[in-house]
Amino acid sequence: AWGKAKVALQTTVGQNNYKNWISPLQLMSIGGGVAHFSVPTSFAGTWVERNFSDQLLHALADAGAGAHRLDFSVAEAATAAPNNTNATPPPAARIAAAAAAAEKDQPSASLDARFTFDSFVVGKPNQLAYSAARRVAEGGHVTFNPLFLYGGVGLGKTHLMHAIAHQLSVDRPDLKVVYLSADQFMYRFVRALREDGTMEFKELFRSVDVLMVDDVQFLAGKNSTQEEFFHTFNALVDQNKQVIISADRAPTELKKIEDRIASRLQSGLVVDLHPTDYELRLGILQKKVALYKNDYQGLEIGENVLEFLAHRITSNVRVLEGALTRLYAFGSLVGKEITLDLAQDCLVDILRASDRKVTVEEIQRAVSEHYNMRLSDMIGPKRHRTIARPRQMAMYLAKQLTSRSLPEIGRRFGGRDHTTVMHAVKRIDELKLADSQLADDLQMLQRMLEA
Ligand code: ADP
Ligand code: MG
Predict the structure, then answer these.
(1) Which domain holds residue 60?
(2) Whose atoms come closest to the Cα of 155: which ligand?
């Protein structure tokens, strides 16, 4: 019932209030007309009581758990929080303390109420990941285990994971769902070691029904945490409990993660989120505009402005959203309709940053660093293979990643002829098929240069 009530509260109190005040609440018991909640701090209790009592009572009643009075008591963890010698912490500190204390009680990190399946826009680049996430969120029998989602920054991995958790909390409130980032996992593990609580830690994580760990690339090089993660992972998968993992790259490309762990991670379903295309970006903008409609009444953003943004801001969805938010803020400040001109003025810096192109010089530097050669050898005359091959790769990358012509590229490689560049491009294209090490290197360099 509390799960259901919480979902309703997300709309009645607003997302920010929900996140700060309602989500840290835990319903301890309900009986005799009284609902007992545990709160992270007494301040949070007073605040919730004063501001959200009506909404809470209503939501509980609608969820079939009627009460006429609310009671709040401070969770024990909060009194043990460090720094409570400070008698009147500023509000921000209180909120942070509340969040930290709430985290101590529940293994799950807090979820962003906005990240639901409804607010997720599906397009070709994320279709597969979306379908897989939906499937897992049905929570029936476990089919893909683990589900491994990967893709670049801001493509919606965290959004999908939260959406799964939200959906399960509505449809399957009986399941214990835990979502946290890999660094939170590590933080908890390290704390458990320090506080002699490894048994509790193990029990806690091995008793969940659905475990989601976000951004596992952060476990790189953290050997003991990896080990513990691996045991947790195996224990859950063996019990047929759903595990969902995300990372910024494929399991095979995770660096400093033990091979047996990486290979176990890809034993279920691996799906990637591709970079967005124009259509998807426009769809996301349109969706956001529809969602913002109530917050910014009377403030219109024309379709041509959205199309412009979708064309020009291609890096990541977060930047796209930032641009839109800025336009709204600006528009409501100056009280004007947001025209294309106004948008261009207001977003110069964002637009300039997303226009940033890779230069031939950056490519030369990256390639020479990768192969431990001198930058001057890129433009110098040496023809030994250990130098000529990387030089050809740099030429190839220059052709792929910049808009320079062959003669222009040649000139930047110490005045070489355009036919030399053409030959390099052809040669590397051939080698890419035959030499997987070279293909990997190229891919890695390209990703690094485009980041
Ligand atoms: P990641 O975890 O992959 O770095 P996030 O899930 O944090 O990315 O997404 C970044 C932002 O972009 C979030 O605000 C998210 O809601 C939004 N976003 C990304 N993809 C989509 C999508 N397909 N539809 C709607 N919003 C999206
Ligand atoms: Mg993320």
Answers:
(1) 2-83+96-103
(2) 1
